[in-house]
Amino acid sequence: xxxxxxxxxxxxxxxxxxxxxxxxxxxxxxxxxxxxxxxxxxxxxxxxxxxxxxxxxxxxxxxxxxxxxxxxxxxxxxxxxxxxxxxxxxxxxxxxxxxxxxxxxxxxxxxxxxxxxxxxxxxxxxxxxxxxxxxxxxxxxxxxxxxxxxxx
Length: 152
Fold this sequence. Notes:
The protein has six helices and five strands. By secondary structure, it is an alpha+beta fold. The longest helix has 13 residues, at 51-63. The radius of gyration is 16 Å and the shape is globular.
């Protein structure tokens, strides 16, 4: 018995996207790919996923066009387009975490302003994409770093 519904053939764009992107493991894998982890063992260690869970999710993500495998796992243009979704999750957490214990700071790499939106810098009026966004993750030492999901 499946654990959830299959929306892969849904005509609703939100249901169709949720078929792949609503999986928490997929979100964590995306986070790690953007953070610069591209090897299977790196992804497994960073997400805590078992080998079988990670292998299934990577296969699903490749089938959905989010990633490619080329000696490691890399985000495609479609995968890079998920960045605003991750930002929305981080902004939600920041709004519900008054002590800042989970800490992900999103800044614009163009102007250095802290993001107040998920997809657009409200300071310099430019998109927050993988080529221009910096993250500072408490779990990674807190120093700002460029996202690894940028186009090669």
